[in-house]
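Review form for a predicted model. The reviewer records the input and the model, then writes brief findings.
Reviewer: anonymous (R2)
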Amino acid sequence: MKNILILFVCFVFAGKVKAAADTTRTYSVKLAKADIKNGNIKFLLRGGIVSSVKKGQEIFEKKYKIKYSDFGCVMPSGLSIEDYNKTVAIYMDKIFGIGWRVDVRRDVQGI
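Model under review:
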């Protein structure tokens, strides 16, 4: 009986974790689409203690009218960088084709 109870608790907890992940994914995609609609197009980056700027990134930003947004070491909760960036990448593919992918920073996750 104890094993069944433990199994049940694990099953319920796993469902809540999956629901939270789905909520994060949904929120991140909606946020990316809203940012695109508002002309606030950006790729999100995970940084370290100090935000990093890569040589030539300003050329990419100007050419493709997009910004890099680096969170440093503090990430907002409830946001999936991978899902956000994937949505932006799909938009970029539609507008510019796949050529932009050669120039984008290699540390952009989710594309």
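Findings: Confidence is low (pLDDT under 50) at residues 5-19.
Further findings: The two ends are 47 Å apart (CA to CA).
Recommendation: see findings above.
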